[in-house]
Amino acid sequence: MQAIGCGPINRIIFTNKCIKNKKERDEFETCSKDFYNNLKNNRVFIDTNGIIHFSMSHTVKVINKLVKCF
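-> structure tokens emitted (70 positions)
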């Protein structure tokens, strides 16, 4: 599992391979659907493209919930 992105905009990828582009990401990634469905079931909003947005407005309570769900 690895996080890719820049600053507050990220995506978690389930592979230990180096991702160079979208084609490789889609080819190497294995179980992200279950991960994102689990987040949604725990009422954590994730964009349909799997992008996770973090913000300075997230409270400690929200961050702790994210950590628990991850």
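The two ends are 11 Å apart (CA to CA).
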